[in-house]
Write a structure and sequence with these properties.
By secondary structure, this protein is an alpha+beta fold. The protein has 7 helices and 11 strands.
Length: about 325
């Protein structure tokens, strides 16, 4: 009888342990699954491939704009910038996941329940329900295995929130252009004039007639992991193509005619923010490529897409 009672107590004890464990697992993982970002720890060998220290852009005189470009890039003129540091790469999924895990931040696309995608089947820009930074192609997609891809489906507000958390800021469009162009007075792209490589070997861009066919000569149909292509002269990656990048500047068509000569920030107000660098959707079939160092894109700040990301700048030594 005592042995039976002991066995019953043992079974009861094991049952209680299982019940408590099950409840703990449910409370941890069974609620609000989509609200918690996936674990995106990047293997050490991946991190070692790209130096993550921001690049120092020296103070001095820089050329901005293009007298042969669209109206909003004219007139080309010189400005003076104080030194600043700019991230070598666009902010990645792993970097953004660290921010979300630390703060519980929810992006505009997550709150809305949709984001804007270029649909390769219909060849149109469409509203994709369930698309957000964790589910870039809709609710059935994932960023697992894409830790080093640039984060997308982030609005200007999302990018700005990350930058503040990181102790940095979004670059002004003029800082961005100076970093892409360098102090050279020639050249339309962020690679050397004497480069022997073709465009598809230098950046993730659209090859072929947009939007009918992407030949994918660069081996990517969509976004690519950061630093998949050669760095600029300064050592900065993906300043042309891959994802368009948010800046802190308001868009105004006449910005270049009105800005000051020292550390300009752009217009003081506006309905849209400037994006720079073009994206994987950029082509030059119209004679003007969005991937040039002087091209000015623009989006409303609440907009999120599968072709827009960002990088950050700082004045001081990097904090993280």
């Amino acid at each position: 009888m005592s042995a039976g009672r002991n066995n019953s107590k043992t079974i009861l004890g094991l049952g209680l342990v299982c019940l408590i464990s099950g409840a703990a697992i449910y409370l941890t993982y069974g609620q609000n699954v989509d609200s918690a970002p996936p674990s995106l720890a990047v293997p050490a060998n991946v991190e070692a491939e790209v130096d993550t220290d921001p690049i120092l852009i020296p103070g001095g005189t820089y050329l901005i704009g293009s007298d042969t470009g669209p109206r909003d890039t004219r007139p080309a003129r010189s400005i003076h910038l104080t030194p600043f540091r700019i991230d070598r790469t666009e902010v990645t999924n792993a970097m953004f996941a660290e921010f979300v895990q630390a703060t519980g931040y929810q992006t505009d696309a997550e709150r809305r329940g949709y984001s804007l995608c270029f649909d390769e089947t219909s060849r149109q820009f469409t509203r994709q329900d369930g698309a957000n930074w964790q589910h870039p192609d809709g609710p059935e997609s994932s960023i697992l295995g894409k830790e080093t891809f640039p984060v997308i489906h982030v609005s200007w507000y999302d990018a700005n929130a990350y930058a503040k958390w990181a102790g940095k800021s979004l670059p002004t469009e003029f800082q961005w252009e100076a970093a892409a162009r360098g102090q050279s007075l020639r050249g339309d792209f962020p690679w050397p004039l004497d480069s022997k490589l073709q465009a598809h070997q230098l950046a993730n861009l659209w090859q072929g007639e947009f939007p009918l066919r992407d030949q994918s000569l660069d081996e990517y149909h969509g976004i690519a992991p950061v630093a998949s292509f050669p760095a600029s002269e300064h050592g900065i990656f993906d300043l042309a193509g891959n994802v368009a990048e948010w800046t802190s500047s308001f868009y105004a068509e006449d910005s270049y005619a009105l800005i000051g000569e020292v550390d300009p920030s752009g217009a003081s107000r506006g309905e849209m923010r400037v994006t720079r660098g073009g994206s994987w959707l950029s082509s030059d079939q119209t004679g003007v490529s969005e991937a040039t160092v002087w091209y000015r894109g623009k989006l409303t700040p609440e907009t999120s897409t599968n072709f827009t990301g960002f990088r950050c700048v700082s004045r001081d030594e990097p904090s993280r």
